[in-house]
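Hi, can you check this record?
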Amino acid sequence: MILNLDRWKKEAVAAIDSQGEQLTYGELRNFAEQAEHLMPSRSLVFLLVENNVGGIAWTIGNICAGNVPLILNAHLDEGLYKSLYELYQPPFVCVPEGMAEKFRYDTIATCYGYTLMKTGHETCPMNDELSHLLPTSGSTGSPKLVRHKFDNIEAAALNISTFFELTEKDRPLMVLPLYYTMGLSMVFSHFYVGATVLITNLSMTDRNFWNFMKEERATSFTGVPYSFEILNLMRIFRMDLPDLKLLTQGGGRMPRELNLKFAEWCRDTGRQWIATYGQSECTARMAWLPAKWAIEKVGSIGIAVPNGELSLIDMDGHLIATPNTEGEMCYRGKNVTMGYARKREDLLLGDERHGFIRTGDLAYFDEDGCFYIVGRMGRFLKLFGMRVGLDECERIVKGKFTGLECACVGTDEKMIVYLTDENNKDNVKEELVARLKLVASSFEIRVIPEIPKNEAGKILYAKLNEK
């Protein structure tokens, strides 16, 4: 059985949610067996999940049963759901029980708070290796899906559980969504060692969130930069959390000052602070910064995960072997996914990547072999002949003006800088002109109510064009 699920005692608790429900490993195994009889083998099922025990049961149960779930947000935009539904024509849809009446499909079964329904569409041919599908990060309007295989699940679980040194005694607090690659990888890696996942959809500003965390003795917390901004505002540094031993961060670059603040707090309180890097295309984690370097190399993504390999190539595709030389970062490992699906017929495709991917990130490594992300390959402009990184410009603005939301896009003719504060409009332009040594006409500042982001806190640059 995948993820060592058949190794653990049946009464051992696999998951607990903040609604008071729990799931044992024995119940999970039994449900996986039941799921085999609910649908024909290798069926595509749209699985609309919330962060609760039922979401975990149906996700893992379907994968174990050999069905192929597309794991989606239960509160997905109606237009996007319709687009995906029409394109992929799933024979089955599974949603939280309270939402079932919105869907005019025939009910097959209700279990763990979710209802499975039959849509009337025929089953479609599916590659034998395909285990599950996830939407690509940030692609809220795209039908492009990441195709994962069973080997990816096993490889990711082994890699992550190894460098985090996970054991069955761990009790991770999961606030990241199940349909988000880093959230799902938490389930994979902790089930691999027989741990208990504490899953919640409560806001981190809710008193019940903190009660759940303390009462269930959470030993670790995984978040994206936005998560730690909230923890900072909630003054976690003053809290008494004796069971919390590990904090891990992924999901994009974290502001240096905040990163350092958490790293120093963890050092001073006997905890570990571990930054990670990954993509859905690689089943979440590809690199990690060992805690011993958390302060010395703040901002680095660190080294490749166990059983993986990071490298850099130049513009001509040649391997870069010299430290502090920028190039496109590549990754090789068994957690590299099969490729994308853009239509129903693509679910039959085989592995197009064969364990290797060019990440699209521009990076360099230092003398210790630790990697640093400079920006995305496509996130550069050439203003008046000068190569300017859009990500770097965002960091300049946010570093100078604390708390100011900012997003940079544009063409080689002009950079457009979106802000959320009218009062800093002129100041931001002056700072960029001074720092980049470019004329003021190189920049156009636009003020909008808020910067569009996805659930993981990543900026949706395509949405800015709609502003």
In short: The chain has two domains: 2-371, 378-464.
